[in-house]
What does this fold into?
Amino acid sequence: MNPAGGIALIVAGSLLALGVAFVLRRRLPGRAVFGVAAAASLAIATGALLLQAHVSAAEWTLTLVAMSLLGPAHIRIVMGPFGRPRRLGPPAG
It folds into this structure.
């Protein structure tokens, strides 16, 4: 249990996730956005686990794997697609 480290990770991960959702989501390639969002989610999850006492290895594993997928999915569902917008070409015909 490490309250100061846990709180710091939650705050840092949250700020990074907000930056991804509102600024970087449409400026970087989709895979890069997914990776940064996953890193932000992992920081939040790690911080939450550091605030708890007696966390098992199974809880660490399940939490980190789940958050690395659910965090980016949440941003994608709520805010829209990742990656730069595609430019439409001239109409065919």
